[in-house]
Amino acid sequence: MKKLLLMLCFFIGLAACSNGPTQEEVMEKFVSAWNDGDFTLMYTYLSSESKEKIEEETFVERYQSIYKGVEAENLTVEAGTTTEEEGDDTPKPFHVTMDTVAGTISFDGEAEMVQEETDDGQTWRIHWDASFIFPQLNDGQTVQVMSEEPERGNIYDRNDRPLAMQSPVKEAGLVPGKMTEDTASEIAAALEMEEDDITSALEADWVTEETFVPLKKLRPDGKDSEAEEMLEIDGVMIQEASARFYPYKEKAAHLTGYIQEVTAEDLEELPADEYGTGSVVGKAGLESIYEEKLHGSKGWRIYIPESETVIAEKEVEHGEDVKVSIDAAFQENMYDSMQNDAGAGVALDPKTGETLALVSTPSYDPNHFVFGWPRGAFTKASEHPDSPFSARFNNRYSPGSTIKPLTASAALQAGSLHAEEAKTIEGRSWQPNESWGGYKVTRVSDALTRVDLKDALITSDNIYFAQAALDTGSEAFSEGLKRFGFEEEVPYQFPVAPSSIANDELDDEMLLADTGYGQGQMLMSPIHVAAAFTAFINEGDMLEPTLLSQEEPREVWHEQAAPAEHLDVIREGMQGIVENHRGSAYQPVMEQLTIAGKTGTAELKRSQTDENTKENGWFAAYDYEKEDLLMVMMIEGVQDKGGSTYTVEKVKQLFAEWKE
């Protein structure tokens, strides 16, 4: 009987052992928890010996922290296999792959397993080793991550003049141990900073009595004596540093844009391995458009400081320079001519589409976003009624009479207008019939009663172009304008709102007539107006405007936007606008110029009887002899400045300077 009981116990024990989890099963569960990043569950599979060396809380916190620090993603752990011949004493292989800030890390490892007695019988457990995390890591060692910020690329004009650059600067700061009780207030006044901000900087956890606490970088175009005067304040130290600098200041602000330190909101959108606290990002203009190229890519090093062992490393990639087609000298001249007005200026090379200048006024100094705003200056700019932070060259406005060459093109393409055929127009106002009620189209002068296309362009006859639009009809007229890129995205590096013909459809006669001479609901950006006028220089083909400097920049946006067979009469009309005494751009006379163009006065009326009308003055012009410059300028509020003539004078002067 005793022998029978012993045998029964033996078989029960054998059954218990054979029914327990195998090494492979335990390893698979351990690996599954590892793949899930569940270190708490992983800890339950560790051997008693391993648990004696490290407590659960420490284990979980240590290895979660390491993975978080290296920004481990796409972690994949795979358990290998062993043969029956190798036996239970053979370590179990595994393979680990993960993506980190320093690149992909991949390695093989081995786990030693031991059989231990538990409440549920014997089971297999794993001897933990720190090398499971990284092969180079030993118990008691730490893993650190170090980043290297890339140097931001510069932005250059076509002649390699810097528009935005990394510049050596001086940085003012404090050494707490050398300060006196008056230091904070004195340096606050010198740097135009709030004393509370200086106090906050000094209270940072890392600050010691001997630490240099940076406060503010000094502009490279400031007074040379500025830093020397600050050094007379007890505790002030000046160090060499680097900062973004915009040499053309207000004159190219809307073109270059500016950079700022990232905000919490920015970090939610930007890649975490490239941007962190203290990083900068382009916030507007070219700085924003080419952020990825200019920023470059951070360098990263994952290493063990105790052994100086590098686990993984990604070399820093400095930002690339961006070269644009802008002519900085001409950009400067255009800004100078417009700085006292609210408006926009665009200059293109009409044979290539390259942008030579992009100006918006009023403006701001983008350096203030880098070096700090003088007290009250930001609030003043933010509350300015003319919105100096808003770029105007890519916003939409009523184009006024600058649309008339496009109206002529649409009507000629449709066959509803014949260039040499004269219309009979009597008086200064007109309506097709009494159904219009009191509404009439008016023109500036009734000197001509027989008006052909050339005369209509020279005298900017609203009635002629209203009739041309009506004769063409809503559908054909809209199609003609769409040949010039209306109702579609402008293919340009800068974001530009699509130009619109009307809010909905041109299903109203009065709206169609008004649209024919550039009023109505039509909206167009100065950039698009400039691009549209390239069709009159390129045998009817309209070019894409471009901003990057390229070896072969010329790209056709729309072929035959303007009818090639009728270009001569349109060109002659636009030439007459400038050179004929009846032309709206005749004054001021500058005989050395060889330009053709079209003026426009966009009346922003609430009704036809509105007498307090604000007017925007336009002039789109090009050099018909050299064909090397096309310019569009729009000035707001010219009603008390002579109308579009005010704009014409500025544009003509710029053409004269360009010739020189």
UniProtKB/TrEMBL annotation:
Keyword Signal tagged: yes
Cellular localization per UniProt: Membrane
Catalytic activity: Preferential cleavage: (Ac)2-L-Lys-D-Ala-|-D-Ala. Also transpeptidation of peptidyl-alanyl moieties that are N-acyl substituents of D-alanine
UniProt domain Penicillin-binding protein transpeptidase: residue ranges: 343-654
Main location: membrane
Gene3D superfamilies: DD-peptidase/beta-lactamase superfamily (3.40.710.10), NTF2-like, domain 1 (3.10.450.100), Penicillin-binding protein 2a (Domain 2) (3.90.1310.10), Penicillin-binding protein 2a, domain 3 (3.30.1390.30)
GO molecular function, one term: penicillin binding
InterPro entries per record: Beta-lactam/transpept (IPR050515), Beta-lactam/transpept-like (IPR012338), MecA_N (IPR007887), NTF2-like_dom_sf (IPR032710), PBP_dimer (IPR005311), PBP_dimer_sf (IPR036138), PCN-bd_Tpept (IPR001460)
Signal sequence interval, chain numbering: 1-18
GO biological process, one term: cell wall organization
Domain Penicillin-binding protein dimerisation: residue ranges: 148-304
Pfam families assigned: MecA_N, PBP_dimer, Transpeptidase
Domain NTF2-like N-terminal transpeptidase positions: 24-141
Pathway per the UniProt entry: Cell wall biogenesis; peptidoglycan biosynthesis
Keyword Kinase: no
PANTHER family: PENICILLIN-BINDING PROTEIN 3, PEPTIDOGLYCAN D,D-TRANSPEPTIDASE
Family membership noted in the UniProt record: Belongs to the transpeptidase family.
The protein's name: serine-type D-Ala-D-Ala carboxypeptidase
